[in-house]
Amino acid sequence: MFGKRIVMSLLAVGVTALLVSAASFALFTAQTANNNNTFSAGTVTLGAVAGCSNTINNIAPGDAGTFNCTVTYTGSLSAWVGYTATMGGDLTTCDGGGRFTAPGLNLSATPSVLGGVANNGDTRNVTVNWAFALAAGNDCQGDSGTIGITFHAVQSANNTTGAGPTSWN
Amino acid sequence: MNKKLLLASSAVLAVALGVGTTLALFSDTATSTNNFTAGTLCITSERNDGDPVPGPMFYVTSAQGATPPPTSIPGTLPTGLWAPGDTHTRTLTVMNPTSCSTMGAWLTSIEASMHPGGYLPMANKLWVEIYTPQGGGPDVKVGEGWLSTFLAGPVPIQYPDTTKIPLHLSSNRHMKFKVHFDIGADNSYQGQTLVVDFKVNSVQMPNNP
């Protein structure tokens, strides 16, 4: 009987404590909202390269030519557009090398800036002047060479020196 | 025996007469009714950078920032599309109007909720800082975190000296939201969108120092 009273007392104390505890958190509160905040990231994209898939066969020492590579900037953000070029194949190394050339092309790993900041719909062009030296010997007969053009684009916002981007990646 | 019975009856009669006398006294009552009405706490808010209200603080196009129909007044401060490294600051004025509130408030936290279909990872690249004046002084930072943290639940706000931020009855407070798009956001974030609601929480000031 005595034990039952103790249990009942403890229960009463516990319930009271819970009520007091609940009361401590019963402050009035209110909330206000500002809805529909939209954050949309823009895009930096390039369209397909035009005029730059040429196959020129049977060139002879002394031949030279020109073609234009054009790209359209299709992103929604303003961007810097640049290019890098590569040359490869036996034709670049035959006869001691230097017989098949593309003077003025940027062959470094760092893109060359093409014009100012580009916006959607703007185009950029690279003119490729190639030459097969008249001095090329028989070592070059039947050899092939390639000239690759890669366009690069990078956001101009928060990434500009005034004349180009601070970083290309 | 009869004499005893007579005496007893007399006594009973005397008591009955006595009670009857008591009920016949003049009397009166005066009642005073005490009414208790619990107060209310409500806070409201509007964007406040010169834009028409109501409307969102952050929007990409003027159309997105327009007031609701039928007014549909275009927003005047679109952020434009966000590029990594971009930062934009907008102001939310929080009010404690007597039209619906009867007590002062402490501003305690800010949270956010995301609309369905948004690109949740973008919330990990948007850093949010909250500023408000302390006393009569300049703005001070009272809270910060990735937007994803605000989406996860209330982010506590307080002055740098850890004191509470008051919003007295019939007053207002400018809360500046500064949002920065992490320069480290890679191409996977291109073209992605996130729409959120910002919510400011408060608690009663009376009896709650």
Structure description:
The complex is a heterodimer of chains A (169) and B (209). Chain A has 169 residues and is an alpha+beta fold. Chain A has a domain at 64-155. In chain A, 14% of the residues lie in helices and 33% in strands. The longest helix of chain A has 23 residues, at 2-24. Chain B is an alpha+beta fold. Chain B has one domain (44-204): Sandwich (Jelly Rolls). Chain B contains 2 helices and 9 strands. Chain B has helices at residues 2-23, 147-152; strands at 44-47, 87-95, 105-114, 126-133, 139-146, 155-156, 165-167, 172-181, 193-204. Residues 12-20 of chain B have low confidence and may be disordered. Chains A and B meet through strand 1 of A and strand 1 and strand 9 of B.
Quick rundown:
The complex is a heterodimer of chains A (169) and B (209). With 169 residues, chain A is an alpha+beta fold.
Q: Which labels suit this protein?
A:
heterodimer; A: 169 residues; alpha+beta; three-stranded antiparallel beta sheet; 1 helix; elongated; B: 209 residues; Jelly Rolls; five-stranded antiparallel beta sheet; four-stranded antiparallel beta sheet; 2 helices; 13% helix; 32% strand
- The side-by-side strand order for the widest beta sheet of chain B comes to 1-2-8-4-5
Tell me the distance between the termini of chain B: 82 Å
**Beta fraction of the residues of chain A?**
25-35%
Amount of helix of chain B: 10-25%
Report, as a whole number of angstroms, the end-to-end distance of chain A. Answer: 82 Å
CATH class of chain B: Mainly Beta
What's the structural blueprint in terms of helices and strands?
The complex is a heterodimer of chains A (about 170) and B (about 210).
Chain A: H1 2-24, E1 29-40, E2 64-72, E3 79-88, E4 100-101, E5 112-113, E6 123-132, E7 146-155
Antiparallel strand pairs in A: 2-6, 3-5, 3-7, 4-6
Chain B: H1 2-23, E1 44-47, E2 87-95, E3 105-114, E4 126-133, E5 139-146, H2 147-152, E6 155-156, E7 165-167, E8 172-181, E9 193-204
Antiparallel strand pairs in B: 1-2, 2-8, 3-6, 3-7, 3-9, 4-5, 4-8
